User: Which sequence fits this backbone?
């Protein structure tokens, strides 16, 4: 198969983890006789420095030309006080929206080898295997009106959470389809005891559920869900929720996995001009300026995102499984970075990448 992949390493540790993810992708392509063409583009702080724009038009074009895009992370401390429009994060929001990737899949697994890396009690997290489906192109992240107006005591910040029936239905359908191929359980997360958007959310989810009688549906309020995720994560299979709830709960999921450096993600749902699906793959973690450039970052979230790309964008299930098995064997061998608190000396970013390639 021919794989045309765009990489957007971005900022901070994004550059280091993307390098290792690419090495793994090259290794898997060699092993399974696929032909890989790589292109690199600019996104985030580095793109602001080079072009003045966190999401340059060139990058948008490259994304639509590629079969799939592998992203690192965006964010640089020098932009911390810049207005939202001029921040690296704006590039990330721009690319998600431009590609129309409305469903962000964030799987959370507790690997046996990492059970002691989590601060939570072993018996609570053992066997956790869930997927958060986060709506990614709507809600309060994008809603208008927004902004800061007025002065003095009357100065006011405004954001708007808004969802249409169509936006809710398509991401819900995606989540039901995933659940259908797993343990057939879907939890829809909302705040319908307070928010109108959540009341509509719940109504539409119930309607879509009629298409999936084989999947068991539960509704859960977001505050209770935050508690259940650490009290009894095993009760969850697939969870679907609006954009900001998903942002928050997926970081909580990182505690179940031992480190946020472990979590991969796949953003899907959009189409290219030729009708083919687009896919955007990125680790859940940020650019981690505090450890950037020190070869310390955990590349396994980025490498897991390569597995997700092989599965969702290319339908290469054996190749995806090979990458996931290689990750697991590296974990079992204790070859991990410092964030996972190994009992022996931690490995560097590139040593972990090399270990995954060797395992492949
Ligand atoms: C994430 C990140 C982003 C988000 C930031 C960097 C804009 O936290 O992907 O979870 O809020 O979506
Ligand atoms: Mg986040």
Assistant:
């Amino acid at each position: 198969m021919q794989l045309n992949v765009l990489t957007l390493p971005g900022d901070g540790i994004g550059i280091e983890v993307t390098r290792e993810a690419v090495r793994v992708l090259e290794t898997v392509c060699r092993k399974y006789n696929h032909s890989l063409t790589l292109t690199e583009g600019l996104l985030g702080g580095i793109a602001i420095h080079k072009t003045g724009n966190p999401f340059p038009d060139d990058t948008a074009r490259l994304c639509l030309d590629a079969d799939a895009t592998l992203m690192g992370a965006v964010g640089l401390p020098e932009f911390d006080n810049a207005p939202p429009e001029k921040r690296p994060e704006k590039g990330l929001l721009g690319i998600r929206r431009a590609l129309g990737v409305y469903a962000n899949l964030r799987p959370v697994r507790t690997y046996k080898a990492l059970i002691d890396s989590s601060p939570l009690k072993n018996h609570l997290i053992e066997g956790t295997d869930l997927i958060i489906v986060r709506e990614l192109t709507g809600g309060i992240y994008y809603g208008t009106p927004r902004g800061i107006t007025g002065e003095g005591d009357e100065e006011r910040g405004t954001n708007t959470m808004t969802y249409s029936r169509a936006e809710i239905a398509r991401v819900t359908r995606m989540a039901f389809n995933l659940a259908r191929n797993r343990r057939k359980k879907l939890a829809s997360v909302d705040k319908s005891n307070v928010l109108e958007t959540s009341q509509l959310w719940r109504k539409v989810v119930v309607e879509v559920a009629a298409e999936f009688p084989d999947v068991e549906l539960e509704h859960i309020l977001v505050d209770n869900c935050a508690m259940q995720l650490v009290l009894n994560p095993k009760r969850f299979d697939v969870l679907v929720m609006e954009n900001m709830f998903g942002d928050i709960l997926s970081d909580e999921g990182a505690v179940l996995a031992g480190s946020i450096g472990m979590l991969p993600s796949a953003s899907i749902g959009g189409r290219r001009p030729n009708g083919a699906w687009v896919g955007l793959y990125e680790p859940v973690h940020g650019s981690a300026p505090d450890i950037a450039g020190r070869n310390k970052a955990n590349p396994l979230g980025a490498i897991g995102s390569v597995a997700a790309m092989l599965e969702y964008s290319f339908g290469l299930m054996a190749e995806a499984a090979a990458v996931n098995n290689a990750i697991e064997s590296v974990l079992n061998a204790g070859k991990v970075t410092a964030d996972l608190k190994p009992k022996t000396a931690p490995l560097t970013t590139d040593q972990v990448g090399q270990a995954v390639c060797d395992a492949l």
The chain has a mean pLDDT of 96. The first strand starts at residue 2 and ends at 10.
